[in-house]
Specification:
364 residues, alpha/beta, two-stranded antiparallel ribbon, 43% helix, 13% strand
């Protein structure tokens, strides 16, 4: 018997959003972990809005904003306008953010208005640190063997925005720059002044860019530290040494694997001063030879670090293929750093979910 093509919408319903989400959906453990981390940040969120306690309309709950920002990274949503649109009709997104079917979704401008507030109080950094603590409690971190690397992040600015700092080319059209030599000393972007012209190799063009730096634990490739910086030739090693200070301690021997870009006397000596063994790849073609010798390379641990350090490319690939880090749609170093930290927090959550499933299968 053929069924009728009819549509009758009920005035009332008893179905909840929880019933629409399968019990085995991969977002379920992530949502549980995120909610636990956000609950511990309740005092910080209260301090964020302490100045507005005297009056005014209630704000959008910062917990909902953070969960929505995580969804944007996890599902490769291009813009905040599209994110708000999807939250409006996507029941899975509504469930994850914490909105009921009847709740009205806020305007996309709420993200821009609250981004500076979240940066000022390091809310995203606390969320990232919570993912590291989760991994540590589950015994997924070695705490002794690390890898470090940097990646190029294209800024939300174009070549046309690069103008002379002294204003001598204000009367020229922005596209008329053929034959003119440009450098960071003489030119700056009018769209994003904090970005710098940078290229990874002689075969690549110099683009307005930032650098993203990541420190991973070698046991499972989880990110334990992250930072963005302006793009210059020494930033990778300087930021790496700064991040290693957080994991190094007196009487504790740790190792760090890195590629040939870190094979310099300055970085190697800085590591040894912190009691960190630099397992960097030897650059035998550099002037003066490699900064490390057989006293380091002869140990079996050196080969293990060189093999494990390549796993750090997975978080960069995920951040650029799934996440928004190939070319960020925010301007300014602080906002780029916040977006990079949020992306690595999302990466850690997906890795934790996968590792939890593997451990459950092994237990069976």
């Amino acid at each position: 018997m053929r069924g009728a093509d009819s549509y009758n919408e009920s005035l009332f319903t008893t179905v909840t959003l929880e019933k629409f989400v399968p019990a085995t959906h991969p977002l379920r453990p992530i949502r549980e972990w995120v909610n636990d981390a956000l609950a511990k940040m309740n005092s910080k969120f209260s301090a964020m809005y302490a100045a507005d306690v005297k009056g005014g309309r209630p704000s959008i709950a910062p917990e909902k904003l953070v969960r929505a920002m995580l969804l944007q990274v996890l599902y490769s949503v291009r813009s905040e306008r599209q994110l708000v649109e999807q939250i409006q009709y996507n029941l899975l997104f509504r469930w994850f953010v914490g909105l009921s079917i009847e709740d009205t979704v806020w305007n996309h401008s709420v993200f821009s208005k609250n981004r500076d507030r979240l940066i000022e109080h390091d809310a995203v950094t606390d969320l990232f640190n919570a993912t590291v603590e989760m991994a540590d409690k589950r015994g997924l971190l070695s705490g002794e063997h690390f890898s470090v690397d940097g990646t190029l992040i294209q800024a939300w600015a174009s070549h046309k925005s690069m103008r002379r700092k002294d204003g001598s080319d204000d009367d020229r059209p922005p596209e008329d720059w053929r034959g003119e030599r440009r450098s960071n000393d003489t030119h700056a972007s009018t769209s994003d002044p904090e970005s710098q012209l940078y290229r990874k190799s002689n075969a690549a063009p110099a683009l307005p860019s930032y650098l993203g730096h990541v420190l991973t634990d070698n046991q499972h490739g989880l990110v334990v530290n992250v930072q963005a910086s302006t793009a210059d030739g020494t930033a990778e090693r300087e930021v790496a040494a700064h991040m290693l200070c957080d994991v190094a301690a007196p009487g504790k021997r740790v190792t760090v694997g890195a590629d040939k870009a870190y094979d310099t006397k300055g970085f190697v000596s800085a590591c040894r001063e912190m009691n960190v063994t630099p397992h960097v790849a030897q650059n035998l073609n550099r002037k003066g030879g490699s900064a490390i010798d057989s006293r380091t390379t002869r140990h079996p641990g050196y080969e293990v670090s060189q093999r494990k350090r390549k796993c750090i490319e997975q978080c960069f690939g995920w951040g650029k293929q799934i996440g928004p880090m190939r070319q960020v749609m925010v301007r300014g170093l602080d906002k780029v750093d916040q977006l990079l930290t949020l992306t690595m927090a999302a990466y850690n959550l997906t890795r934790l979910r996968t590792l939890a499933q593997l451990h459950a299968q092994c237990a069976q």
